[in-house]
Amino acid sequence: MITQKILQNKFLFIIPVTVLVGLHILWEYFNGGVTTHYLLAREDLPGISNWWGLLTIPLLSWILISLSKWLHNKNQTTYSISKITNGFIGGLVFGILISLLWEFRLENILSYAILLPIPIALFLRVHLPGNLLGFIIGLTYTFGGILPIGIGTVLIIGSFLIWTIFRKGLPFIFQKINQSIH
């Protein structure tokens, strides 16, 4: 029910997310300064300040909620409200898991866990906007407002390619081969 209300009025999600990002940045500001995240966690590479999260997270939320609404309106049977909600929660839990693995310095497990969406894409559609939004929100506290978008985009593209190739492409090829044999 709440997901349907959010699809109808995006501000029900965007305003609380923006407030939380703002509170997090204020807390950082008054406790040692706003964090800057460096690419590949190396200070000799360019840094990205958490200040950007005030722009990127609300904007991305707007875009992904709009896309979810469009997909739901286009085909309510394959992209139902429950699938949007479950995808968001699944992405959120996965994002929090990745954040915890990073915070507890379990990089050896993290290096495998971050790739989980790729094999899962053989069975489930993990490349949907709700999943990406949940994943990014789950990573935002630990990684700021830019790096999660890049990480999530790469994972979504990989998952989409796996889903398309194995769930759509291979059956089509096998069908054509079967037709040419008979």
Quick take:
With 182 residues, the chain is mainly α. Helices cover 73% and strands 3% of the residues.
Write up what this structure looks like.
Keywords: Membrane, Transmembrane, Transmembrane helix. The chain crosses the membrane at residues 12-30, 50-72, 84-102, 133-166. This protein has 182 residues and is mostly helical. The protein has one domain. The protein is 73% helix and 3% strand. The protein has helices at 2-8, 11-30, 53-74, 81-103, 107-113, 117-120, 129-143, 147-181, and strands spanning 36-38, 47-49. Helix 2 runs antiparallel to helix 3, helix 3 (53-74) runs antiparallel to helix 7 and helix 7 runs antiparallel to helix 8. The longest helix is centred in the last third of the chain and has 35 residues, at 147-181. The radius of gyration is 19 Å and the shape is globular.
Side-by-side strand order of the widest sheet? 1-2
Q: Radius of gyration from the CA trace?
A: 19 Å
Please mark out the parts with pLDDT under 50 across 5 or more consecutive residues, or reply none: none
Largest sheet: 2 strands, antiparallel
Based on helices, strands and strand pairing, what is the structural class?
mainly alpha
Give the domain tally: 1
Query: What is the N-to-C succession of helices and strands?
Result: HHEEHHHHHH
Percent helix range: over 70%
How many DSSP-defined strands?
2
Distance between the termini: 51 Å
Q: Average pLDDT across residues?
A: 90
Helix count from the secondary structure assignment: 8
Shape: globular
Strand percentage lies at: under 5%
Transmembrane segments: 12-30, 50-72, 84-102, 133-166
Keywords: Membrane, Transmembrane, Transmembrane helix
